[in-house]
Design a protein that fits this description.
Largest sheet: none
Radius of gyration: 27 Å
Shape: elongated
Length: about 140
């Protein structure tokens, strides 16, 4: 049995119980009831299948890592090696100035990758994009002389 579907089964059963308190039965109500029964039946059928090998909600079909907390090979390294937190005195302008003066690698070393990424995002540009106001170099390819 796959326990991942138990919350969906419970929600469907609660919704089905709400139909018992309705006193007016119309074609619309019966259509909604039939849809909810189908939804509950599909959840029960899915729960009858084998349990997932890992407990990862982001990567349900990923390979297994027995050392990871949730058994996911893709999430395991991130859990073992969390990113350096953004400094408390983080000022995006300072990070952007440091990038301009010393380059992105030096800024990453000093402030951490998350702080540099956030500063670049807030600054509105990625380091690989050209800065506004700088014209593109002329294209001399294919020019006939």
């Amino acid at each position: 049995m796959n326990p991942d579907y138990l919350p969906a089964i419970g929600a469907s059963l609660r919704t089905l119980c709400e139909f018992a308190t309705r006193h007016d039965v119309t074609d619309q109500t019966l259509t909604e009831l039939a849809a909810e029964i189908d939804k509950a039946r599909a959840a029960v059928t899915a729960a009858l299948g084998p349990a997932r090998a890992n407990r990862c909600l982001k990567h349900p079909g990923s390979p297994i890592d027995p050392t990871a907390e949730n058994g996911c090979l893709l999430c395991g390294p991130a859990q073992r090696r969390p990113a350096r937190p953004i400094p408390e005195d983080f000022v995006p302008g300072d990070v952007l100035r440091h990038i301009e003066e010393h380059g992105q690698d030096a800024a990453t070393e000093r402030y951490g990758p998350q702080a540099v990424t956030r500063a670049l995002m807030l600054g509105g540009r990625h380091p690989s994009t050209r800065r506004r106001g700088i014209p593109a170099p002329p294209n001399d390819e294919g020019a006939s002389t």
